């Protein structure tokens, strides 16, 4: 076969798959979002953005992403460098750290609910240690801070591993020679991390951040399990429009709004972490 | 090819053909009811045992509707019979359901049969089973009842006082309210609080009496377990002791009574200035126009309305019969407790029975949201009652105008769309 054509032939199945199962439904959803039965209209967007809860859900979603992603980034970097330095048991540690990846997000939410509930592990522990006289209600409408914290913890526990895996692979690609040279010139470990690891990790950081930020805007099950109705997020409202209100047009409009936010942040991340022209590892 | 493998091949071919044939002959019963595993199993083994080959598949509302709509849109389907709540059917286009008026079976209640016509002149679904919402309490909590209060004839003021006493005794609020994401709180406002205080639901939505009702709700909420915003099935909190006095759907309380029948009591909902408001829950069976085997589907619908099937359904799901039938004595504790409470509620001198919202079509969800939003803003958000009601009133009025739904009891009848006064 013609060597120039081969790459295109090889990506053809994936392209077809994406067209059929991503592009085509996407076109249908957009059509739904911009119509209410009679021609082109922005009514659906007006409806969802005009609802009194929309600013709250938007704020909650962004706030959660802003609180969770930086912590996860720092943790994932720390864990990745640690794993990279290990001589023995590297694989075992990596497997253990990535276990939360294999658990569905609803299950993760329920696990953390079992911890924070009134009759949950945290309460029985505090009770047993004599810190509280009787189990206290933590996840209530009076303690929005604790609800937020619980969701944050669950998210960090659940989804740090996805960044970790990408960063571990990225660190593995950095040639050892740079570190050896830096050591010869007496660079401290911190300096080596700042001047070698971080810059050369840019492409992996890009991928990890893009993936993680998009997932952060799609957060749903963990919030539903832990926060109930106390912490409305964009995806939860989309679900409510589709299944409680049977309003597919409004649900589609909200889904497109989430998509727009995701694209905007993807572009920002790509721009900020771009690899300078001509630079290679 | 060896002889052996030929025989094997032929055998597996026959086996595949057999299963394909069996799968075709089975009627798919696509339901939103009797979802818990034990209930679904009881439906299959007891209720549907004599109904021929039936594949009973319960599902959540979302997937239930998605598959149904896909089949309706493509014009060919495998679902034979639908089982769902009145609200699910009223959100559908009546043309998508087969007329069942000529089937010869219907419920004993004219009101239910009228609801089941969905605004047409023939039955679009056949009423299948009914339930209601009641109160339940742990027997230990009865000692905190205010002096002179009869648990079977409580008023809202007495309920609040009772909850306050229990709060004081336990050191933490012990009233439980299903305000979680899957909880049925909106039905409490529509069928209980509003009728009891304003003798209406839509007309009186923003009246002065409604302001009083929400003030009472706030008072009650002060003695309500704040984790209630995560509660959806109050039987769990009754059993765990997180709540002592609760309001919920009869089948969402059943587990508590069946597991520890001697520990709990069921009793009627409280009464307000305009009577003891309460509302029924109605489930029905229908046939989508895409059903593969119309005769088998109709036979199954007829089977569901037989007296013995209705009793078996009661045992399986804790939903009561809709046809006239003598109830046997050996019913599960939950059924007896709920049945007594509902009977006392409807027989009480100040009973003010409401109807299910009708004529709202696919706006049923929006209608519920008006009440849930009011609750979240007034009770959880602490916003001014008058301002919230005046604001939400606009939403309600536009839903009523858009659907043209006439008033239902206890609202006074209307010509055309029910007005929000």
Describe the fold and architecture.
The complex is a heterodimer of chains A (281) and B (421). Chain A is an all-alpha fold and 281 residues long. In chain A, helix 5 crosses helix 7, helix 5 runs parallel beside helix 11 and helix 7 runs antiparallel to helix 11. Chain B is α/β, with parallel strands linked by helices and 421 residues long. Chain B folds into two domains: 179 residues, Periplasmic binding protein-like II (D-Maltodextrin-Binding Protein, domain 2); 203 residues, Periplasmic binding protein-like II (D-Maltodextrin-Binding Protein, domain 2, 3-Layer(aba) Sandwich). The radius of gyration of chain B is 23 Å and the shape is globular. About 2% of the residues of chain B have low confidence. Chains A and B meet through helix 12 of A and helix 3 and helix 14 of B.
Blueprint (SSEs and pairs):
The complex is a heterodimer of chains A (281) and B (421).
Chain A: H1 6-33, H2 43-50, H3 54-85, H4 90-97, H5 105-116, H6 121-128, H7 144-173, H8 176-184, H9 189-200, H10 202-217, H11 221-227, H12 234-244, H13 248-272
Helix pairs in contact in A: 1-13, 2-13, 3-7, 3-10, 5-7, 5-11, 7-10, 7-11, 10-13, 12-13
Chain B: H1 3-25, E1 27-31, H2 37-47, E2 54-58, H3 61-74, E3 79-85, H4 86-90, H5 110-115, E4 126-138, H6 156-170, E5 175-176, H7 185-198, H8 208-222, H9 234-240, E6 245-249, H10 254-259, E7 264-267, E8 276-278, E9 280-286, H11 294-304, H12 307-317, H13 333-347, E10 351-353, H14 364-380, H15 385-403
Parallel strand pairs in B: 1-2, 1-3, 5-6, 8-10
Antiparallel strand pairs in B: 3-9, 4-6, 4-7, 4-9
Helix pairs in contact in B: 2-12, 6-8, 7-8, 7-14, 14-15
């Amino acid at each position: 076969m013609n060597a120039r054509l081969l790459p295109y032939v090889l990506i053809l199945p994936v392209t077809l798959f994406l067209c059929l199962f991503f592009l085509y439904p996407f076109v249908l959803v957009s059509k739904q979002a911009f119509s209410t039965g009679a021609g082109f209209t922005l009514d659906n967007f007006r409806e969802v953005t005009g609802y009194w809860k929309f600013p709250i859900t938007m704020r909650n979603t962004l706030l959660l992403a802003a609180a969770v992603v930086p912590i996860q980034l720092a943790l994932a970097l720390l864990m990745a460098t640690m794993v990279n330095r290990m001589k023995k048991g590297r694989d075992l540690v990596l497997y253990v750290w990535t276990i939360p990846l294999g658990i569905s997000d609803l299950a993760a939410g329920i696990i953390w609910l079992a911890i924070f509930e009134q009759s949950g592990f945290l309460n029985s522990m505090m009770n047993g240690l004599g810190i509280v006289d009787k189990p206290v209600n933590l996840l209530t409408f009076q303690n929005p801070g604790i609800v937020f914290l619980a969701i944050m913890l669950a998210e960090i526990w659940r989804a740090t591993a996805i960044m970790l895996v990408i960063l571990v692979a990225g660190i593995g690609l950095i040639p050892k020679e740079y570190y050896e040279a830096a050591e010869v010139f007496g660079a401290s470990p911190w300096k080596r991390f700042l001047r070698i690891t971080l810059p050369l990790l840019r492409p992996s950081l890009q991928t990890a951040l893009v993936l993680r930020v998009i997932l952060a805007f799609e957060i749903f099950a963990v919030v539903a399990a832990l926060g109930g109705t106390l912490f409305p997020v964009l995806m939860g409202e989309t679900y409510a429009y589709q299944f409680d209100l049977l309003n597919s047009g409004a649900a589609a409009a909200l889904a497109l709004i989430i998509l727009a936010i995701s694209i905007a942040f993807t572009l920002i991340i790509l721009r900020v972490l771009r690899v300078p022209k001509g630079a290679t590892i | 090819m060896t002889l052996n493998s030929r025989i094997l091949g032929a055998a597996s071919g026959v086996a595949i053909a057999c299963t394909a044939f069996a799968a075709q002959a089975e009627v798919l019963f696509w339901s939103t009811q009797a979802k818990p595993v034990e209930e679904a199993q009881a439906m299959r083994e007891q209720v549907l045992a004599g109904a021929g080959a039936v594949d009973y598949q319960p599902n959540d509302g979302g997937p239930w509707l998605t598959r149904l709509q896909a089949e309706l849109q493509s014009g060919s389907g495998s679902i034979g019979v639908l089982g769902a709540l009145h609200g699910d059917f009223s959100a559908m286009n009546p043309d998508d359901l087969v007329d069942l008026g000529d089937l010869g079976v219907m419920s004993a209640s004219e009101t239910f049969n009228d609801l089941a016509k969905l605004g047409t002149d023939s039955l679009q679904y056949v009423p299948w089973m009914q339930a209601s919402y009641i109160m339940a309490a742990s027997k230990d909590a009865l000692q905190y009842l205010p002096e002179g209060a009869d648990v079977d004839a409580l008023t809202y003021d007495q309920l609040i006082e009772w909850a306050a006493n229990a709060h004081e005794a336990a050191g933490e609020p012990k009233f439980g309210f299903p305000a979680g994401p899957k909880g049925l709180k909106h039905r409490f406002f529509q069928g209980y609080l509003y009728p009891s205080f304003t003798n209406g639901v839509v007309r009186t939505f923003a009246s002065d009496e409604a302001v009083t009702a929400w003030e009472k709700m706030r008072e009650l909420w002060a003695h309500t377990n704040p984790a209630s915003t995560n509660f959806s099935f109050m039987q769990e909190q009754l059993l765990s002791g997180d709540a002592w006095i609760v309001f919920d759907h009869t089948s969402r309380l059943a587990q508590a009574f069946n597991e520890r029948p001697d520990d709990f009591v069921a009793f009627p909902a409280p009464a307000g200035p305009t009577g003891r408001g309460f509302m029924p829950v109605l489930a029905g069976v229908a046939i989508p126009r895409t059903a593969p085997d119309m005769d088998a589907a109709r036979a199954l619908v007829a089977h569901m309305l037989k007296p013995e099937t209705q009793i078996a359904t009661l045992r399986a799901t804790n939903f009561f019969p809709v046809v006239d039938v003598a109830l046997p004595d050996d019913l599960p504790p939950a059924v007896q407790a709920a049945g007594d409470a509902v009977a006392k509620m409807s027989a009480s001198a100040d009973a003010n029975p409401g109807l299910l919202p009708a004529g709202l079509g696919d706006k049923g969800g929006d209608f519920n949201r008006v009440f849930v939003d009011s609750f979240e803003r007034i009770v959880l958000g602490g916003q001014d009652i008058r301002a919230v009601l005046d604001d939400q009133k606009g939403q309600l009025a536009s839903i009523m105008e858009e659907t043209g739904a006439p008033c239902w009891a206890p609202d006074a009848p209307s010509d055309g769309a029910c007005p929000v006064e």
